[in-house]
Amino acid sequence: MDEKPRVYVTRELPERALEKIDAECSMEVNPHDRALTRGELEKAVQNIDGLLCLLTDNIDEKLLELNPDLKVIANYAVGYDNIDVSACTERGIPVTNTPGVLTETTADLTWALLMAVARRVVEADRFTRAGHFEEWGPMLMLGQEVNGSTLGVIGLGRIGRAVARRAAAGFDMEVKYFDHSRNKNFENKYGLKKSSLEEILQASDFITLHVPLTPETEGMIGEKELKMMKKTACLINTSRGAVIDEKALLQAIRDDEIAGAGLDVYEDEPKLTPGLERESKIVILPHIGSASVKARTKMGLMAAENLLAGLKGEEIPNIVNPEALS
Ligand code: DGY
């Protein structure tokens, strides 16, 4: 009888995903309720056929060198900037991600952040809890109007489109987008306007980022870009932290160059640029864009399917580097 493939899962996942893998593999799961240390990851990656990892695991060339027989790497995320994909491709290792299943969930969270920043929800909650609500006041906690305002979407991929759709269909917003490619059907259906980055920065009341982290997008919103934004504008980021120069953002908030920001992701996650946590105009969340039971279960099942297909040499549903197999 053939031996079962050996698999390591770098963090406890929703049960159904683990059951799926366990049925066909000899599976080991990180026993700790935390990410693996580098040393633990280096140990875990040896003597396995497949790795199911998270965005918190840095899969670089040095790690790959520890196991020349690794057959597949399944990332439990749609983003895969934690993996040196070209090093995997050189070694013929397919890398997979989990697109689609977290789109609507992340778009919902983007909107939760946008509304929270615009209407000062977190600040108002703290104020009320602290017993400061003594009477209704005409000037109490005034924020930015969302309905009918202008939204700038940077990156019109799946999540960018889901955010834009909510804006156009639900909030009567004018939606401008910046992306290298064009999606005319979507544009026409929701009345979107393709714009330059400059135009978006200058004209939008809310700007939301939905680009992957690449050398091109790293630091794309810095001091210069923040200065171009309206003083009443709010910046929302549920993509990857390093797309924004966090120090420049903090300074822009302190100097009242923009009205607020909503962050789910950070430049040096999970560390925050010191001072960020003290700004009431910034709402900060712990990278929970896809954190619904439904989305996380679907992500797990999808990652498991990708992993199993890679191990069996079958067509891999969500491979990001098909050239690895040619
Ligand atoms: C991803 O999938 O890339 C998110 O950041 C976490 O779900």
UniProtKB/TrEMBL annotation:
The keyword Oxidoreductase applies. This is Lactate dehydrogenase. Pfam families: 2-Hacid_dh, 2-Hacid_dh_C. Residues 7-321 form the D-isomer specific 2-hydroxyacid dehydrogenase catalytic domain. Belongs to the D-isomer specific 2-hydroxyacid dehydrogenase family. One of its GO terms (molecular function) is NAD binding. Residues 112-289 form the D-isomer specific 2-hydroxyacid dehydrogenase NAD-binding domain. GO terms for cellular component: cytosol. SUPFAM superfamilies: Formate/glycerate dehydrogenase catalytic domain-like, NAD(P)-binding Rossmann-fold domains. CDD domains: GDH (cd05301). The keyword Cytoplasm does not apply. It comes from the Bacteria.
